[in-house]
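Suppose you are handed a protein chain with no further information: no name, no annotation, nothing but its sequence. What can you learn? This example shows the usual starting point.
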Amino acid sequence: MSRTHRHGSRYRQGHENGLTVVEVLISLALLGVIVALVGSSSRLFARAGDTVGRHAEAVFEETLARSFLADRIGGALYLDLGDAGEYEVAFRGDRDSFRFLALRPRYEHGTALVLSEFVIEEGGSKLLVRISPAAPDEVTLEPTGEITERLLFDDLGGAEFSYLRQAEDVDESPRWEDHWEEERRLPLAVRLDFNDPQRPPVIARTRLTSPPDCASQNENAPRSGCGLL
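A reasonable first move is to predict its three-dimensional structure. Written in structure tokens, the prediction is:
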């Protein structure tokens, strides 16, 4: 057997028994690239998951805030705040805040009548609600007890309130106004408008359209102030 044949046989035998140094280095380099790609993808998916999670939490919190706002405004009551013979509903509001009297929801403990105040603060970035027990023997829009404060929105990005006035004539349409003070009726609804045009407004209707006594069919029922509405 020639020297060349013996050398070729040893080469083939060594090649069949394992990888060459060059092949090992190439394999390690490819493995490193794969590990780097997998790690980068994992971090990307983790960041995407965190972003989706934060967005879902923000949507959930805003949904709760909208529901709370609508529930509270819907419970506004017709209570006479004015002097004798001068009917004035216990509801006042402007672009930055409004307050009113309502019955406390059944799921809360405390006095039956509560004063609720919604306030836009810190340059229009936050919406707070302050709730306090109302005086049982006096109609007032001033707090008379301990105030409980809750943050509803912390990223308003600028917002303001407006109030829907009932049309005075059948040929007219209700209109939105930026204040409500010394009125004889509750607004038909309260609207929270955001400066961001992509963010839908919050519109909450009041359930009572007139004092219960005014809608009574009993002729002997008290109707104080109904003729002025």
